[in-house]
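Help wanted!
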Amino acid sequence: MSTVPHSPGAAPPPVLLQGRGIGKTYATPVLAGVDFELHAGEVLALTGENGAGKSTLSKIVAGLVQPTDGTLTLAGAPYAPVSRQDAERLGVRMVMQELSLVPTLSVAENLLLGRLPHRLGFIRGEALNEAAARQMALIGLQDIDPRLPVSALGVGYQQMVEIARSLVGECRLLILDEPTATLTSREISHLFEQIERLKARGVAIVYISHRLDELQQVADRVMVLRDGRHIDTRAMRELTQADIVRSMVGRDVHEGLDRDVRPRGRRALAVRGLARGSVVRDVSFDLHAGEVLGLAGLVGSGRTELLRLIVGADRKDAGEVLLGESAAPARIASPMRAVRAGIGFVTEDRKSQGLLLPQAIRVNATLANLGAVSRAGWLQGDVERRQVERLRELLRVRSDSIEQPVDQLSGGNQQKVVFARWLHRDCDVLLLDEPTRGVDIGARADIYAQMDKLAAAGKALLMVSSDLRELMSVCDRIGVMSAGRLVRIFERGQWTEQLLLEAAFSAYAAAEQALPQEQIA
Amino acid sequence: MTSSRPLTTRAALTSAIGTVAGLLVALALMVGFFSWQSEYFFTTDTFVTIANDIPAVAVTAVGMTFVLIIAGIDLSVGSTMALAAAVAGIAMLQWHWPLLPATLLAMGVGVAVGAINGAVTVAWRLPSFIVTLGMLEMARGAAYVATDSRTQYIGSKIDWLGKPVVSGLSPAFFIAIAIVAAAQVVLTRTVFGRSLIGIGTNEEAMRLAGVDPRPLKVIVFALAGLLAGLGGVFLSSRLEAADPNAGTGAELVVIASVVIGGTSLMGGRGSVASTFFGVLVISVLEAGLAQIGASEPTKRIITGFVIIIAVVLDTLRERRKAKA
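Answered by r_m:
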């Protein structure tokens, strides 16, 4: 259990950071009217479902994002950082999930990057290493040689270096975003020791994590966000894990989520023991013609990676994919083979992995099936235009003409163009990764309707989404991934939001998530 | 149904017309300026000379356009021209081959060089800049070996290609025009051409859409080699010799022509037809500067300046279009 920074009854430590009515609106509000307080020397856990607004709130505090509403007060003074540097000057630091170290430089150089001690432009090596060693000692890392290149350290120690770096100069408030995602249990306990040291020095810590068992160890208070709103903040010792999940889910909403289960046809695809490192672990399931199978899970639980393994975009360590009702493994070594085998893949990031942005809708729509619009290698312009016009009407792509470049379309219409490509290819199996992310409500309805039609036509659909409501309304079955494992597949009628979330958290509780890593110390 | 043209998308067509229009204006300005400066410039002779000078660069620039469209670059074309011409020269001089098979052999040498460039680039996922830089040296060295480091005089056996046949124009000129036209059609009307534009725009998206970029990239480099080989034979028909130093620095003139023609170094955007106009801009400039008596250093300074201006203007135009 954590040490409470103050004994009950004693005067509470001073409020370091206060937020009033914090809101952020992009196209739609992602954060609204959030009030909170953070005390010096405490660990405040920030938790909630995917998309609840955790990262937006923490980025606002770290100066990476500016709020559209509300005010922040830091140690009694108005606080409105316009950049990360601005926030850092005032002692507010954030350690992001993606480390920002330069692997080829030494630990010391990384720690003091941007403020290297020098004389006439020449780095003063000894001064540098001494300063770095002092900094490392602050968080108990005396045993690391500051002259080692960062690339020689294990991920856990790299994380520590990242934290040490954020403590260079003044640090009053430290935000840790999923700091344990890549750590082993040994490294995690080391991290927690350092957190205790920082608390003792009066540093306030915002701790973002999916791992509820960790929160119990490290947090003093827990703040839960849902749909961009502040739901509850309570002292950790008053709460159980089930309490936290309940406040993340809110009341169970059933309206609009009921539908008939689609008739399930023969098997279209089977996955057997698919694995890749610690990211995807021994996943097996069947996908049937005519059904929509959902894949729920937290960000980083291995859902995207699983889809990429199925289409051969990444190399698998073990396991097989079987096509149709065949018992023989379909050796899908590349996305090219997958497409030939009738598997389409709507990627999560349509801009970098899906579309040819400067090219016309027509060019994008026929990309996966140029054979259908050509004869002996020669494109048949009329045929292509007719087919793409038909798809544009079918999917209601709002655009001037099929010749409009897709970078001029809205997110929803861009996604429809990606859909058009796979409709044009006429795949038997369609893998959809967050198909409605960044898509407006109207376009969403069109996409759901299209998925319905595809399922009715006997296609098999596998859909990853971080929006549980969406999965609950669209899918016939929902598989839940947690820490790389497919922990359970729910049939329609068996699930509630609470059960799905509990499953999504379940494998993280078993702490030994990452494989032991080689480390130099 | 919209009245968009079958050849290419309307937007791309407008863009290509914009580029070509800009190049035509630049050409007209240059012709006007040089005609004003020199009474001998605006004559049939000048234009025939220019027309007969351009085939080597023009056909090589066609191959380079394809390479740039897939976001690659080929620095070895100048050396490939010399090597291919040297091999053709030896075939004609020592083995007494006629011109046609010797030319085909030269093109074969070009294909081999290009295929190596492509295969190494793809197999080890290296930047084509480095691979072809190495090939630039290797092919040049091989050209010296093939010619014994001497200029091998070939004579009348090869000069047919560069000699006037119709109103002063050489067969090489007509072949170059035919290749430009054919390549433009391939780029805009075939699955191959469409795939190249896709690879240059977003290779990962192409891969996930089921198109394997690797063989296509090798083919493009082989094609660039083939056309450089033909360009080498054209060059040697003007010199009537196989010179191991032929085509030194040609890669820069070729790349400059392609870029002036509006093809993007970032890949995904380009047109063979406007490359041809880019070639014309550089040849007219060089011929005009020579006629008004500019010294070699002055010529180079001005040519370099024009290349930069052309690219700046094209970039500004593209940005304005992107905003619109």
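OP: Thanks! One thing I noticed: Chain B touches chain A at residues 1-2, 4, 6-7, 9-12, 189-192, 194-195, 197-198, 201-202, 204-212, 268-269 (CB under 8 Å).
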